[in-house]
């Protein structure tokens, strides 16, 4: 955009300079016929260019909007998954099916649900031990990237390593030295099982250190209440979504088998005629 702006300025300056020179030559050298013809021709050409340029630029689109010199503010993303365009990254679907929570179910199975994972993550953060759940969430987002897209997988893997695996990282997780070295020394950052061993270790730690306290916490009670409310709301939506057939409203009285007005009158007339005959 800056180059285009400088080109426009240079072209405008050159055009104005040529117009001024042609005008001066036309006024000074009146005795030279060919110079008069050339200078007037240049004046006519430059005037046509100016008129064409003036009417070709829309007045509704000022120059600042076409060639902006202001630096565009970078778009901010809450998670790396959103920055990489991972589907439904960081989003809670309104129509997500309600999960029936059973504390006897394996924790890794329950963590697959986005709403439960966020509730469990909030509880872990309140205990100042949320790095394991955050790591699980990021690895879960990584699994959404197709294996045949190594570029995005590598970007996501580097982000996870720098945030959770590297020594002194901002949210360094507590994993074994062997698992940490396997990740740090790997030659294939796009491998689908890159964080599998570390993830299994952290799930076991969460089961021992966080899961038991979570079931008796206010976070779990709030999650159960919200899940029940979503279930009731879903059932109400289904009930209000029923459509009754409009065919019954178009049935006339004579065709309605439940319409008793005409048969009763007819029965009255028949009985009266029967009495007369008798």
From TrEMBL:
Gene3D superfamilies the UniProt entry points to: Regulator of G-protein Signalling 4, domain 2 (1.10.167.10)
Pfam families on file: RGS
Protein name: Putative regulator of G-protein signaling 1 isoform X1
Region (Disordered) residue spans: 253-278
UniProt superkingdom: Eukaryota
Presence of the UniProt keyword Amino-acid biosynthesis in the record: no
Keyword Transmembrane helix recorded: yes
Transmembrane spans: 6-25, 37-57
Domain named RGS: residues: 106-224
InterPro entries recorded: RGS, RGS_sf, RGS_subdomain_2
PROSITE patterns xrefs: RGS
Keywords (A to Z) from UniProt: Membrane, Transmembrane, Transmembrane helix
